[in-house]
Amino acid sequence: REASAQVQQLEVGAKNGDVSWWSYSYGPSHIPTDSLFTLDRKEALQQKAAAGSAPATFVLIVPLDCDSSTQCLTFFEFWTTIVAQFAGHAFFVPCSASHAEEEVSLSLCGPEFRHPTFFEWTAHGFEKYQGGKTFSAVTDRVCKAVRGPDACSPDYAWAKKYTHDNDWFSQNAHNWREWLAELVGAPCQLLEIGSYEGLATCWLVDHVLTHPAARITTVDPYMRTSDVNTFVADGGAKVNFDANVARSKYPEKVRSFVGTSADFYDTLDRKAALGTFDAIYIDGSHVASDVLVDAVACWSLLKPGGIIIFDDYHDDYHGPSQADKDDVKPTYDQPKLAIDSFISCFKPYLEIIRGGKQFVIRKKA
Length: 365
Prior knowledge:
Number of helices: 14
Structural class: alpha/beta
CATH superfamily of the largest domain: Vaccinia Virus protein VP39
Strand order of the largest sheet: 9-6-5-10-11-13-12
CATH topology of the largest domain: Rossmann fold
Oligomer: single chain
Radius of gyration: 21 Å
């Protein structure tokens, strides 16, 4: 309940348009007391382990400077949802001066942990998490350890029938059910900028586009940016996309445009296309200037009352791969700058539904 209240408080701040407050205050200082992994909890866990009844336990090590690190805030936000879902099995260990004595006893903090780091309890005590690196893989690991493989989120089981190299979508499905509930069974029109292997596309087809007239348009050049001005072909993603759409419930409802979003906008009769789409998902190029162009172009295509979902507002979802802070992506290579700029310009005309890794806005009617 305490964690839920904290999230609600953050959402109020976001709805009031205080984007910077959301971005930089959602950190260790907001950890509910009952979510901390303390020395007492460790001793109790050790006693249960000695008796052969230790519960599945996972912790996130929060570095000392997490409040100023976008990457850390992304992990913190993700782990807050895990703590709420798996109470008593998932905890935080904040590495800070106020917890110094306890940290020494826990032996879980140290200068080597410059990034958020997951640990799990094993027969040998706490060990660094060695599983899949995506958030969906971590969620799946925690869920199976706590509830068993048959009781975990149906969204991960659903995704297994599709072909993909990376499942970056399933972790979002529970939120999409809420945001898109009013479109289920309606003759809606959806637009997806950046479809990759089609998991989001197929989820929408299978769960939202149930009306005979409902349709989705996807846009992807199947080229990946390796640098701001460098693109490399990604033919494997297109092969997986086509196979996945063919496997979905209503493949005929998908119109796939192969090309950049700029190419797609050029094909439109802008006047006729005004207010065409009920919901738009923007997950294409993550270069800030491209995201801003997509946001402005899609705004005119969105119906009054429609929503836009931006992905990767905190664009560090691949995990702590940087050797040090000097390697963190520059601001111009992240969606956040563009999303903040767009919201500042269009603030009178929109409502912020949610801020976080996925940022959701509604166009005022």
